[in-house]
Amino acid sequence: MRGMSRRRLLLSAPLLLAAPLVPGLIRPALAQGAALSARDQADLRRVEAYFNAMTTLKARFLQVAWNGASAEGTAWIWRPGRMRFDYDPPEPLLLVASHGQFMQFDRELGQPTVVPTSATPLAFLLRADLRLSGDVTVTRVERSGGFLRVTLYSSRSPAEGTLTLVLAEQPMELRQWVVVDAQRHETRVTLSQIETGGRFDSSLFEFNDPQFLEKEQMRRR
């Protein structure tokens, strides 16, 4: 059980980035944004338009932590404000964002942990009006093999690490994100079987409902 708990921690912590990180370990290069070309700026506007036009996304995900631990599951993103990552068995983790809060729930332990959604690296993706400027600093825009990679960090909290978005260009579609924390640990989340524009049951996200956690535990029995 101790080994499994350690595995859960390594899988979930980089995705949440909810715990305080060590400012002294941040790379000096993150102190300022990149000098973006006109092409870079145009591509960033395309990325903004893509996310701002998105209402829902459902996909399978593969998460690989810095130590090689991996897990799969199903992700739901419902903009603005809601997302859900439901890990496949035997991993008992469930992550849900709704109403400005982000919950991590371990179905085996029956213990939820709730932090502000703003404490997670994906929080800005859930904004009603996403902008890759202001409180978001872009450090790099790269293009290769039909993919666009945008690396960024929080202008207010640069010590928390970076987030890289990987998008297919034609048509534009989110395929992967990479989180690098202050200790330089990298976690990759890759999407497949992507569906957009579908309708979701709002009960998937309502973890403030007193019966929500009980229902989620029953789903695995």
Descriptive keywords:
221 residues; 17% helix; outer membrane lipoprotein receptor (LolB), chain A; eleven-stranded antiparallel sheet; 39% strand; 3 helices; alpha+beta
Walkthrough of the structure:
17% of the residues lie in helices and 39% in strands. It has 221 residues and is an alpha+beta fold. The protein has a single domain, classed as Lipoprotein localisation LolA/LolB/LppX (outer membrane lipoprotein receptor (LolB), chain A, Clam). Strand 7 and strand 8 form a beta hairpin. It is globular, with a radius of gyration of 17 Å.
When the domains are counted, the total is: 1
The CATH superfamily turns out to be: Lipoprotein localisation LolA/LolB/LppX
Q: What top-tier CATH class fits best? A: Mainly Beta
Which architecture does the CATH hierarchy give at level 2? Clam
Q: What is the topology, as strand order, of the major beta sheet?
A: 6-5-4-3-2-1-11-10-9-8-7
Q: Count the helices. How many?
A: 3
Tell me the total number of β-strands: 11
Q: Largest sheet, if any?
A: 11 strands, antiparallel
Helical residues, percent = 10-25%
